[in-house]
Amino acid sequence: MKHNFYRYFLCGLMVLTGINYGASQDYCDALFTDNQFTSVQKVELKYGRAVEPTGYIDSIDLYLDLYYSTDNTPEIRPMMILLHGGSFITELGNKSSMEEISRLMASKGFVVASISYRTWSFLLGGVPTVANIVDVVTKAMLDLQSAIEYVVASQGQGQFPGVDVDNLIIGGGSAGAITALHRLYIDEEDDLPDFLQAAFDQNGGLFPSHSDDYNIAYGLNLSGGILDTTWIDQGEPSLISVHGTGDSTVYYEYGLANGFIELYGSKPVDERLRHQGIESYLYTFEGGGHTDIYENIPLYREPLLQVLDTALDLVHHQFCLRTSTLPDVRVADVELRNTLVQRDLIVVNDEIKKMDFQIVDMWGRTIQGGQLGYGVQRISFGGSAAGYYAFRVYSAEDGGQSRYQQLFYYGGG
């Protein structure tokens, strides 16, 4: 990916908004975008050492750049691990391209680890074969796993602030997104193709898909892809995706990625996630390419900013509502039973107190609202545009302490 991709992605993040549900994490007491922390510190830390892919030298050190604000004082902070792009070629990308976005997110309260990972060097190994790329992608996944384990082991010690290891975010752009998607959705129960299983076997085996020490709650996929969408199963992490239909590097639907290997793009990934009941939000840039949708072009700029706004809103909702353990904030006894039957939403309300509802589109606009009666009822949906909507319920009687939210999809027509 071009460096200016990250620069303009950074600009988009500056207008992100979150929703405060007062969850048990201290960082939920303030909206991400209300934070204006200065004194952002950058520390380079060695997180591992691993075999060099080309074989020209024995091994290389792996480093991450850690960004956080010394003005940000909550005991626990949200954690984001980001991977740069560059087609898995050393000379085409490195972690320094993530500095601007990392500093911006640190100013909003995040601790950010921008990691290096093993890539193929033209200088050391010449032009790679398909087998070389498969091997280096596997190594990149294992490096991401090493970085996750380093974060979990190091947080709260020395220069590393305490972070919310139960709600990790991993993601990246292009090659970084490909790496993150495979780490998110491959596990030991999946049937891997022989060439990929052999690559893992040659590199020490598959990474652990579950841990009692941490949880990956969300992924960020910026123009990435995956070898097989059937690896995505119920209960796996939610995902935010951005992709252009004219992308000829990593195809939006399916195709030969960068001339090396066929991948399923963001559209089939989103379809599989929704089919498995996993929250997924895909924004599609019609005609957009691999890098131009992230550049300062009027055709793409405003939609991109709105998409990024939606992304952090969804993340904040998931982190700060679902993980709530405080006695004065609870998930209301309400359930959205369906996603539209003849334009009706079927809602079950078992709360005795009065409950208000809102239906909000993905730009944050309230489409309709009203009060819920007790028991089973139908709400006629008033939206017109196809897309995702949030059904939100709250109690005005207890100051909004009882809350419920569920996403649904309307196909239009």
Give the key terms.
alpha/beta; 413 residues; 25% helix; 8-stranded mixed β-sheet; disordered N terminus; 18 strands; 5-stranded mixed β-sheet
Explained architecture:
The chain has 413 residues and is an alpha/beta fold. The protein is 25% helix and 28% strand. It has eight helices and 18 strands. It has an eight-stranded mixed sheet with strand order 1-2-4-3-5-6-7-10, with helices on both faces. The protein has a five-stranded mixed sheet with strand order 11-18-17-14-15, covered by helices on one side. The chain has a three-stranded antiparallel sheet with strand order 12-13-16, with no helix packed on it.
* % residues in beta strands: 25-35%
Give helix % range. Answer: 25-40%
| Structural class based on helices, strands and sheet pairing | alpha/beta
CA distance, first residue to last residue: 37 Å
Number of helices: 8
Largest sheet: 8 strands, mixed
The average pLDDT value, as a whole number, equals 84
Number of strands: 18
Low-confidence stretches: 1-24, 323-329
From the alpha carbons, calculate the radius of gyration and give it in angstroms: 22 Å
Describe the strand arrangement of the main beta sheet, using strand numbers: 1-2-4-3-5-6-7-10
Output the helix-strand order: HEEEHEHHEHHEEEEHEHEEEEEEEE
Choose one word for the global shape.
globular
